[in-house]
Amino acid sequence: MALRITQVDAFTDRPFAGNPAAVCIMPAARDAAWMQNVAREMNLSETAFLVRRDGAFHLRWFTPVTEVDLCGHATLASAHVLWEDGHLNPDEPARFDTLSGRLEAHRGDDWIEMDFPAEAPREIAAPPPEHLIGALGGIAPEWIGANRLDYLVALHREADVRSLRPDFYAIRRLGMRGVIVTAPAEPGRDYDFVSRYFAPLFGVDEDPVTGSAHCCLGPFWAARLGREELIGFQASARGGTVVVRPAGARVRLWGQAVTVMRGTLTDAALETDLMPT
């Protein structure tokens, strides 16, 4: 039986922007080694695997090198495919059981709303960690914090974020999932803050648009700007927009998505469960 795999650009309304993710909806669970092989073959920042179970979908995310606990853009892509391919009716919520608990997505006219856990950062007392500052080229931070997943480094200007040239080898040695770098938007922008995200330890030097990072950025900027709803722009080469509304222990994220490619896995691929030697 052929198994479809769909590539979706998430957090964008046009092809070849935002963050690409592969989505594979399976009739039954597969071995983790097989899913890792498929993710390596797709060679995208994330590949999502779903199995319908008890009124929801069991969802797992894999980078080319490892499984991860939380991923926003591949969840957005998964919800998009579930509605687009008729696995769910347009008015049905998409419910996901994941390593980060139950997640939900709801479809609007042009946007998809997702309900995620908040990952608010805690400030790291001065002086800043030298190894982290060195990994970011020695740039002077305005604020440094961390949550259970990532470092968060706030810079003074949007231009500082855009011009940053990090040392990916040094970031890989930090021992965290990744590093979020952010700054307030320049006056006149149609977004409130800008960010970039680096996760070389997980096989992604720079992620194009990172939903899970906005679970940290949302609470951080809401407290600083005194706003209930904010618009973030992730300034990667592809770029993408995330609307975020913190709500206590949860964060609501809004994004758009567009399908760019559909294919099927061959019988040979479906019969292979072993990791390469």
Notable characteristics:
about 20% helix, 18-stranded mixed sheet, 18 strands, alpha+beta, single chain, Diaminopimelate Epimerase, Chain A, domain 1, about 280 residues, 2 domains
CATH class of the largest domain: Alpha Beta
Q: Which consecutive residue ranges, at least 5 long each, have pLDDT under 50?
A: none
Oligomeric state, counting identical vs distinct chains = single chain
Average of per-residue pLDDT values: 94
**Counted beta strands:** 18
Domain count: 2
Please report which band the strand proportion falls in: under 5%, 5-15%, 15-25%, 25-35%, 35-45% or over 45%.
Answer: 35-45%
- Sheet with the most strands? 18 strands, mixed
Distance between the termini: 27 Å
Structure description:
With 277 residues, the chain is an alpha+beta fold. The protein folds into two domains: 3-108 and 256-270, Diaminopimelate Epimerase, Chain A, domain 1 (Roll); 122-248, Roll (Diaminopimelate Epimerase, Chain A, domain 1). The protein contains seven helices and 18 strands. The chain has helices at 32-42, 72-84, 130-135, 158-163, 168-172, 211-225, 267-270, and strands at 3-10, 19-26, 46-53, 56-62, 67-68, 94-98, 101-107, 112-117, 122-123, 143-146, 150-154, 178-184, 193-199, 204-207, 230-234, 240-247, 250-255, 257-265. The chain has an 18-stranded mixed sheet that branches. A hairpin with a 3-residue loop joins strand 10 (143-146) and strand 11.
